[in-house]
Amino acid sequence: MYNRHIKVTIDMSDAHYAGRRDPRRIIVAVAIIMSVSVAAYAIWVWPKPKLLVYTYDSFLAWGDNPETIDSEVFGPFMRQYGVEVQIVRLQSDASGIVSRLVAEAERPVADVVIGIDNILILQSAAQSVTEPYIPSTLNNVNASLVDALDPDHHVVPFDFGLVTIVYSQSKINETVHPELANLTFADLANHEMASSLVTENPLLSSPGLSFLLTQIAVYEKLLSQDWKTWWSQVKGYIDVQAGWTEAWTKWISDPTRQMLVSYGTDPAYSYYTTNATPDTRLAPMYHNGSHYAWMQVEGIGLVKNGPNPTLARAFIDYCLTSSVQSYIGLNQWMFPAGNQISLHEAFTYALHLNEVAILNDLLTRNEIAANLTTWLTAWDTIMST
Fold first, then answer.
1. Mind listing the pLDDT tens digit for each residue in 71-93?
2. What are the residues whose beta carbons fall under 8 Å from the beta carbon of 7, sequence distance 6 or more?
3. Residues linked to residue 51 through DSSP beta bridges, in sequence order
4. For 343-371, b where at least 16 C-beta lie within 10 A, e where not — what string?
5. Which residues contact 101 (CB under 8 A, 6 or more apart)?
6. Architecture of domain 162-295+356-384 in this structure
7. pTM, whole model, 2 decimals?
8. What pLDDT was estimated at residue 35?
9. Class of the 30-160+297-347 domain?
10. 205 CB contacts (<8 Å, ≥6 apart)?
């Protein structure tokens, strides 16, 4: 669905987050021998050039036809350029992809990388393996997304989504818990509510880290309080799972866990798959008359010193056109970065940018880069002692 898992090593100087197959195959010429009457002719057919794209294992995997989605989305590019595009879905998140790129840095294998987000790109490791590039089609993307992801263009926006709290209306509702309409961290500090919430480990998971940054932004910037207080209050009650898949599984299988840290598109996915009013509802954080959420922006970038830089740049250009962006909604269940894309009616149930204040505006990129190690260390100390 999305790149939902990351791992962070606590070393901001050159750290990385710690979002299928061997990406290299030996290319051989195929000799086709044809006989015509008494004459024999050898015709050598050379395979097409290959463009390798590294991404995470769930990339475009949540649609109706995941087995054929690559040829459907990238086939026009392959035919236009006479190239084979191989989408290499690593059994990893975006942080694992960066680790792979770092390991291959002396002899890069991939040409393009998809999935590095607006937190991961702050790390020097992610910047070291990507080369800044301004696509010719970047005007298809809102400038605000470009600035939120990476003004230096090591990666440019591919898709985005809002991380928030979702809940199952069949398990918990506003009649019994009216605070769900305007949910606050004070509400969640209540032991009954805290015992209903499943989140992800911010050391390992992208939505988990987004939730931690949400809480820090609210406490430090809106409430002027020590953010660590809340985690001390909910420790032992809140359920912290390793990643989004584990948290989702816990949420749907444990009737006592009615709320989940996830994405604001979850109700849209529920509607699309059931063709009914979704049971999944949204509870963005509330403060002083406004609702808030954290925005994750996933990017596409040029691998530094990759084998086919010219083709790679053309591919990035292509990925920002409607030929690719129009598939993101129903296959990625994120919002497309393209600003001219019509969304399926299911997205009326999703959380949109104009419905919330974006907490990223309160915690700047520089502030996160300077403090993330300290925040994660403090969180880990609280939750493990």
1. 999 999 999 999 999 999 998 77
2. 17, 18, 93, 95, 96, 203, 204
3. 85
4. beebbebbbebeebbebbebbebeebeee
5. 54, 108, 110, 113, 129, 130, 303
6. 3-Layer(aba) Sandwich (3.40)
7. 0.84
8. 36
9. alpha beta
10. 4, 5, 6, 241, 242, 243, 244, 247
